[in-house]
């Protein structure tokens, strides 16, 4: 569910990992806490699979550059397929929040 939510939120706008973490926590209504030990490996996996891509880098607060991630066509298609697999599930009904 974290993977699908991340892909859905990246459809709205490109984001860096910290911003995505914040949006995921808001989106999931505090049902789960998204920690850094989960978000950055998730982003790496999605990028390795070609479902997201680094589209830019910007200076971070500590001087280290931050990667800005955007969803790819492959990621959009995966998200759409997964959402259609379980149309009766309540979390799928939240799909309208991604549009």
Break the fold down into its secondary structure elements and pairings.
Elements: H1 2-12, H2 17-27, H3 36-48, E1 52-59, E2 65-71, H4 73-85, H5 90-93
Antiparallel strand pairs: 1-2
Helix pairs in contact: 1-2, 1-4, 2-3
Please supply descriptive tags for the structure shown above.
99 residues, alpha+beta, Arc Repressor Mutant, subunit A, two-stranded antiparallel sheet, 5 helices, 2 strands, globular
**How many β-strand stretches?**
2
Top-tier CATH class: Mainly Alpha
Overall shape? globular
Order of H and E elements: HHHEEHH
Fraction of residues in helices? 40-55%
**Termini Cα gap:** 18 Å
Number of helices: 5
Strand order of the largest sheet: 1-2
If you compute it from the alpha carbons, what radius of gyration comes out, rounded to the nearest whole angstrom? 13 Å
The major β-sheet equals:
2 strands, antiparallel
Q: Which segments are poorly predicted (pLDDT under 50) over 5 or more consecutive residues?
A: none
Q: Helix- and strand-based class?
A: alpha+beta
Q: What fold name stands as the CATH topology? A: Arc Repressor Mutant, subunit A
Let me know the CATH homologous superfamily: Winged helix-like DNA-binding domain superfamily/Winged helix DNA-binding domain
Instruction: Kindly give the count of domains.
Output: 1
The CATH architecture classification is Orthogonal Bundle
Mean pLDDT: 84
Strand content: 15-25%
Question: Could you walk me through the main structural features you see in this protein, from its secondary elements to its overall organization?
Answer:
This protein is an alpha+beta fold and 99 residues long. It has a single domain, classed as Arc Repressor Mutant, subunit A, CATH 1.10.10.10. It is 53% helix and 15% strand. The protein is built from five helices and two strands, in the order αααββαα. It has helices at 2-12, 17-27, 36-48, 73-85, 90-93, and strands at residues 52-59, 65-71. The protein has a two-stranded antiparallel sheet with strand order 1-2. A hairpin with a 5-residue loop joins strand 1 (52-59) and strand 2. The longest helix is centred in the middle third of the chain and has 13 residues, at 36-48. The model has no long low-confidence stretch (mean pLDDT 84).
């Amino acid at each position: 569910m974290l993977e699908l939510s991340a892909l859905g939120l990246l459809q709205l706008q490109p984001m860096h990992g910290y911003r995505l973490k914040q949006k995921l926590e808001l989106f999931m209504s505090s049902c789960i806490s998204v920690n850094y030990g989960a978000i950055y490996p998730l982003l790496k996996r999605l990028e390795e699979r070609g479902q997201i891509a680094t589209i830019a880098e910007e200076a971070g607060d500590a001087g280290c550059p931050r990667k800005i991630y955007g969803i790819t066509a492959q990621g959009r298609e995966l998200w759409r397929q997964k959402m259609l697999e379980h149309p009766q599930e309540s979390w799928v009904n939240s799909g309208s929040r991604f549009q």
